[in-house]
Amino acid sequence: MKKMNRRNFIAKGSMGLGAAAVLSGLSSSIFAETNRRWMNQPIGFQTYPIREMVVKDFPGTLKLMAGQGYQLVEMCSPQGYVTSGFGPLVNIKPAEMRHIIEDAGLHCPSCHFTFPELTDNLDERIEFANQLGLTQMICSTFWLPKTATLNDYLDSADKLNKSAEKIKKAGM
Question: How does pLDDT run across 71-82, given as a tens digit for each residue?
């Protein structure tokens, strides 16, 4: 723990008191407007950290999360994340998945996809995204090895930029 001498304590304490005095003199309407803006922001969660619960009881887990006050959910593409625990959701059609999400009182604007999904199976993934009602398709990582070079990353970025053009044309 860092020691503080009396002079520093008095100086820092005075600054704190001065700041408190200035802030107390500001109009409360400034803070009210700031709070109003933030209070209208929907709160969301990502399914990856709770994937074990999600795959055991997809509708129930979503309803539980909505009951906790969440309004948005960000899915992980079941097909791309099969080996990460999302395998049991693969057979749920995207339109059915959307219905389950909305029935829970949630909205799903975005979903994580693997790099290969967005470069090798893009048309299929765009169709999935449209049926799910997404506005955003997210690539979680380049999935490059630790030995990847800067050129590997640049090449991957070029591939994703090409995919992004097609995704944008699809309305996302």
Answer: 999 999 999 999
